[in-house]
Design a protein that fits this description.
Elements: E1 3-7, H1 13-22, E2 26-30, E3 41-44, H2 49-59, H3 61-68, E4 74-77, H4 79-84, E5 85-88, E6 99-104, E7 114-121, E8 125-133, E9 137-141, E10 147-152, E11 155-161, E12 164-167, H5 178-188
Parallel strand pairs: 1-2, 1-3, 3-4, 4-12, 5-6
Antiparallel strand pairs: 6-9, 7-8, 10-11, 11-12
Length: 189
């Protein structure tokens, strides 16, 4: 059985761990860089991207996760997607830069704090209930290798580039483990 770590610096860690287990892998909360050696895939959860970014740098995860990504799959959700992006709209310092997109934070504006959409996602299936909370949106796809798996208002909300899968919404907040199963499959490949 594969082991998937959830970066446990800040944000929705426990929910992802439950879904990983439902999807048939073993889940572990990653708090120390050394733990990266013992996992087969990593999830960077939602939360607050500035805080996650700061803590990553403080504990050396910025360098260690970039190394990890050379060999193993990573999935980022919401703030995790922001942390993976190459560019953040508005001059904010980017973090891991593992995904060739430009990302806009809180892209739905203050009046739309959260909403749900049913998405059809290749490799996942139909009617996946996607929960968006102060969600980012992809402003620009910056590489031809990026597969856009679904959009909302014509803007990409879930993308894959090689071993990196990222989405604006929170797949851990429903009972539907199909996205986590897709990630487990990426890890098993
Ligand atoms: N708005 C948050 C940020 O910019 C992300 C929100 C989330 O992860 N639910 O970091």
């Amino acid at each position: 059985m594969k082991t998937i770590g959830v970066l446990a610096l800040q944000g929705a860690v426990r929910e992802h761990m439950n879904m990983i287990e439902k999807a048939g892998a073993q889940a572990v909360a990653v708090k120390k860089v050394e733990q990266l050696a013992d996992i087969d895939g990593l999830i960077i959860p939602g939360g607050e991207s500035t805080t996650i970014g700061k803590l990553m740098r403080k504990y050396g995860f910025d360098v260690a996760i970039r190394e990890f990504a050379e060999a193993k799959p990573i999935m980022g959700t919401c703030a995790g997607m922001i942390v993976l992006a190459k560019e953040i709209v508005g001059n904010e310092e980017p973090h891991l830069q593992l995904l060739d997109i430009s990302i806009e934070r809180n892209a739905f504006g203050r009046q739309v704090d959260s909403f749900e959409e049913y998405l059809t996602i290749p490799g996942v299936g139909e009617d996946f209930c996607s929960v968006f909370i102060r969600a980012p949106l992809v402003a620009e796809v910056k590489h031809k290798d990026i597969e856009v798996l679904a959009t909302v208002n014509d803007r990409p909300v879930i993308v894959r580039q090689g071993n990196v899968l990222a989405m604006s919404f929170h797949p851990e907040l429903t009972n539907d483990e199909r996205i986590h199963r897709m990630f487990v499959n990426m890890v098993e490949e």
